[in-house]
Design a protein that fits this description.
The protein is an alpha/beta fold and 474 residues long. The protein has a domain of 181 residues: FAD/NAD(P)-binding domain (3-Layer(bba) Sandwich). The protein contains 18 helices and 16 strands. It has a seven-stranded mixed beta sheet with strand order 7-6-12-13-14-11-15, with helices on both faces. Helix 1 packs parallel to helix 18. The longest helix has 15 residues. It is globular and about 65 Å long. It comes from Gordonia malaquae NBRC 108250. Pfam families: NAD_binding_8 (PF13450). This is Putative oxidoreductase.
Length: 474
């Protein structure tokens, strides 16, 4: 029987193992930490009974993932929960832009920009699943929906700063800018509109749900599905050399390119190894978790109904803070994402104390303490926030990298999205999952289609491995 070892028990490692196991491969997953999940884990960071997401928190691409839907994670205990409003973006003027799952409701709240919002996002939302089929794979593939992809392309290649000019109101520009900032690079560069378009459309198609009980529930369900398919998992087992990897016909690595080189660099073809060595990181985060008594005292009560609040001011401010961050300068007012997951999932709270999840975009490898900057940004739109905080847990950039070796330099996206690397990660290739070492594949978010709890990096890598065996998915 063909056997496979998966190094890394994050969502992509589990997805890769699950797809192989369902195709008759004997699968064993090895995870360095004492628990599986990678970026999709949960913990009582602040107080007992108050549940915080370790990293990934909102999952439009999780609920919409074609692979997870095929697996039916809900049958293994996963429950999705949606907030009343997906995202709020407050401005200093006192107004707030709101992203609803309903594109009509979103447009209605944007006044004169409502029609423009629908013009930008309407067809992408309607065609989201078909576009995802073509975009959530390596770029070198024959599209199944070329006309829809062709309509999307001219907008996707634009800098976010150019597409933002379509909107006339500060609210619509800010709402788009906050969504586009998830690309984690300068917004005045080509292709940066693409991720904002897809994240916005995914919200209109599927909403921005959370997993009941915390993001760790996603990987628990995936692990249960893997075990049900005959796979096995070992935790607390770091892999630091090839000798730590049991003999197998297939090895899939849910690791960063740097870790792949550390393990297999001496056997990789020179050209591929050099591409991996030149792979750029750059999406660092400084995370602060709060336990608060009651709800955040937002100036605009609508923010208190939103699962996510983007705290970054108007579009010009977001563009400038991302420019500074990308050039290695810590902005005075960094872009901050605030998560109020308990609004959709009250099981995360305890006795009136609620978890607040927040992180700031900071320069790669940032060595400072951004805690005060995060608090100041929240206080800017919620005066009195400090007074309701009863406990705080800080995850610095260095701690981020220490707790998850894939987060090199605190990069939570598995690599920079600047330039063509967004499309050609971890290297330009027809099959980017192949490492050049026979039977060894990369399946982490450093491979296409990139970051997100969709499991598709793992699924695609497993498909590549099955092709290498001469098999086809039934």
């Amino acid at each position: 029987m063909t056997n496979a070892v998966i190094v890394g028990g994050g969502p992509n490692g589990l997805a890769a193992g699950l797809h192989l196991a369902r195709n008759g491969v004997d699968v064993h997953v090895i995870e360095a930490n004492d628990d599986i999940g990678g970026g999709a884990r949960s913990a009582e960071y602040t107080l007992p009974g108050v549940i915080h997401d370790v990293c990934s928190a909102f999952h439009p691409m999780g609920v919409g993932s074609p692979f997870w839907k095929e697996v039916d994670l809900e049958s293994y205990g996963l429950r999705w929960r949606w907030p009343e409003i997906d995202c709020a973006h407050p401005l200093d003027s006192g107004s707030t832009a709101l992203l609803h799952q309903s594109i009509d409701a979103t447009a209605d709240g944007l006044g004169v920009d409502g029609r423009r919002w629908k013009a930008v996002f309407g067809d992408i939302t309607r065609n989201f699943d078909d576009l995802g089929h073509d975009l959530l794979r390596p770029i070198a593939n024959v599209p199944a929906h070329p006309i829809k992809l062709g309509l999307f392309g001219p907008r996707a290649v634009l800098p976010a700063s150019v597409l933002a000019r379509v909107f006339r109101t500060p609210e619509a520009r800010a709402l788009f800018g906050g969504i586009a900032a998830h690309v984690y690079t300068r917004l005045d560069r080509p292709l940066t509109a693409s991720l904002g378009l897809m994240i916005g459309a995914s919200g209109h198609r599927y909403g921005w749900p959370v997993a009941e009980g915390g993001s760790g529930s996603i990987t628990k369900a995936a692990a249960a599905a893997l075990t049900d398919a005959g796979g096995s998992i070992t935790t607390g087992t770091p892999v630091t050399s090839r000798s730590d990897i049991p003999s197998a016909d297939i090895v899939l690595l849910d690791l960063s390119p740097a870790q792949v080189v550390a393990l297999y660099g001496d056997t990789m073809p020179t050209g591929i190894r050099r591409r991996y060595e030149k792979y750029s990181m750059g999406s660092s985060a400084f995370k602060v978790d709060f336990a608060v008594r009651g709800d955040i005292p937002w100036t605009d009560p609508d923010c208190g109904r939103a699962g996510t609040v983007h705290v970054g001011g108007d579009f010009a401010e977001i563009r400038e803070s991302e420019r500074l961050r990308a050039t290695g300068v810590m902005p005075d007012r960094p872009f901050v994402l605030v998560g109020q997951q308990y609004l959709a999932d009250p099981s995360r709270s305890n006795g009136g104390v609620n978890p607040i999840w927040a992180y700031a975009h900071v320069p790669f490898g940032y060595t400072g303490d951004a805690t005060d900057a995060v608090i100041a940004q929240i206080e800017r739109f919620a005066p009195g926030f400090r007074d309701i905080v009863v406990a705080t847990h800080v995850t610095s950039v260095a701690s981020m990298a220490e707790k998850n070796r894939n987060y090199v330099g605190g990069d939570i996206l598995g690599g920079s999205n600047a330039g063509l690397q967004m499309l050609l990660r971890p290297r330009p290739a027809v099959d980017p999952y192949r490492t050049g070492v026979d039977g060894v594949y990369i399946c982490s978010q450093s491979a296409p289609p990139g970051a997100g709890i969709h499991g598709l990096c793992g699924y695609n890598a497993a498909e590549s491995a099955l092709r290498g065996l001469g098999r086809r998915r039934p």
